[in-house]
């Protein structure tokens, strides 16, 4: 098999989609031919490339930062909603 073709048999997308490496099924096949054959099959085509260790580290750091930001926003919203619910139930009980 061509060294430029990944040896990994599958990959998982961030949306949970599982992609299979058709090069394992077809053997040493030109990328253009793989794309042409894939377009005739059901499913979505994913083309990708590997990244260097430093690029991977930067990507994971960016994903980690984005995840922390998303969690902070979610927790902030929940705290605000909880505080508002507490105020509403307190004001109702005071009547």
Task: Give an overview in words.
With about 100 residues, this protein is mostly helical. The protein contains 3 helices and 2 strands, in the order E-E-H-H-H. It has a two-stranded antiparallel sheet with strand order 1-2. Strand 1 and strand 2 form a beta hairpin. The radius of gyration is 24 Å and the shape is elongated.
* Mean pLDDT reading: 81
Shape, per Cα inertia axes: elongated
Low-confidence parts, pLDDT < 50 over ≥5 residues? Answer: none
Secondary-structure class: mainly alpha
SSE pattern, N- to C-terminal: EEHHH
The main sheet orders its strands as: 1-2
> Helical proportion?
55-70%
Compute the number of helices: 3
Radius of gyration, whole Å: 24 Å
The fraction of residues assigned to DSSP E strands is 5-15%
* Total strand segments: 2
Major beta-sheet overview: 2 strands, antiparallel
What are the SSEs and their pairings?
Layout: E1 10-12, E2 18-20, H1 22-26, H2 31-39, H3 53-93
Antiparallel strand pairs: 1-2
Brief sketch in words of this structure:
The protein has 95 residues and is mainly α. 58% of the residues lie in helices and 6% in strands. The chain has three helices and two strands.
Notable characteristics:
single chain; 95 residues; mainly alpha; 3 helices; 6% strand
